[in-house]
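User: Hi! I'm working on a homework problem where we have to compare a predicted structure to a textbook description. Could you give me the structure for the chain below?
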Amino acid sequence: MLPDAHNHARAVDDIMRFIVGVDIVLFILVVGVMLFFVFKYHKKRHPKAVNIHSNVALEVLWTVIPVVLVLYMFYLGWEGFVQTLFAPKSAIPVKVIGRQWSWRFQYENGKQSDTLYLPQGRPVRFLITSLDVIHGFYIPAFREKQDALPGRVREMVLYPEELGTYEVTCSMYCGLNHALMATKMIVIPESQFMRWINTGVSAPVAANADVTKSARLKD
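Assistant: Happy to help. Predicted structure tokens:
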């Protein structure tokens, strides 16, 4: 499992565990019932087939339970998905520009950077686009991903709560050097961020190396 950096990421992981758990239970149940009937109604025990009439209660039960489970899974997924769509008024707009094979970030005052710097505790509204082909703007530690489409602007909301350095990658195969299309997202204190974005000070680094997190895949 990837490291997580936000409550939304942990919620996504919980939903995934729930769905996998339900799948395992249903698999065991279906296979178990199948093996039971194979054994119970073996030809040696029942050489002559007997017509079995319908059971309304059983049919209702195996229709209602899957419907309830699917609706509950949809509710959990939708609740988390909505968080990535609607930005609060305090959100900082950041334009994300994808191109073969790099990312470029442009802030509201026109400042640009190849590394994504964000203030801790402030929601961010990403405006994502591409200059050439389809890319996938993906931050694994936050479980957030949005397509970058040429000629269109897609939105995504992020809540950087923890200081640290996080991987940013491209999740869509976009050509020869797709694997090299990666950069860093560095979450820093808001005071340090405002000083960097409004002045010519050098690029900031993640505060407190001991809390820095990386979203690399585990071996």
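For your comparison, note the following. The radius of gyration is 25 Å. The mean pLDDT is 82. Good luck with the assignment!
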